[in-house]
Amino acid sequence: MKKNEMRLVFDSCSENESFARMVIAAFITRLDPTLEEMADIKTAVSEAVTNCIIHGYGGKAGKIRMNGCLKDRELTVEIIDEGCGIKDVEKAMEPLYTSRPDLERSGMGFAFMEAFMDELKVASAPGKGTRVWMKKRLQKV
Predict the structure, then answer these.
(1) What HAMAP family would the database entry show (predicted)?
(2) Among 4, 21, 106, 134, which is disulfide-ready with 42 (CB 3.0 to 4.6 Å)?
(3) What span, in angstroms and rounded, lies between the C-alpha atoms of 15 and 48?
């Protein structure tokens, strides 16, 4: 299968979290993923987008970029914001850690992304935004 790519930019509002889920689901549909694979990918994207909205922009206006690439039976997806960035990525990736305890968040976003995808990389710096890169290999049907 040849490579197929998509790029999307959308506003950092909570309504667009479900939009991002639907876009990634439609993008991978031609690979005929299992229900579990579909749920895993949609959940990982949802967590990454929610992190942009809540932590990256703190609920303020901003743009989120979602890039997807399919090659053979492998999906790579990037979720990118230009928000406040993460001071300590390693600490932020610890289960139950949250930068916003006032919002009663569980602090499991990165843990879910890591569990549901085959690879996860996070690049961030204070004041420079955050890039979450994930990869998932889909089963052969």
Answers:
(1) Anti_sigma_F
(2) 21
(3) 14
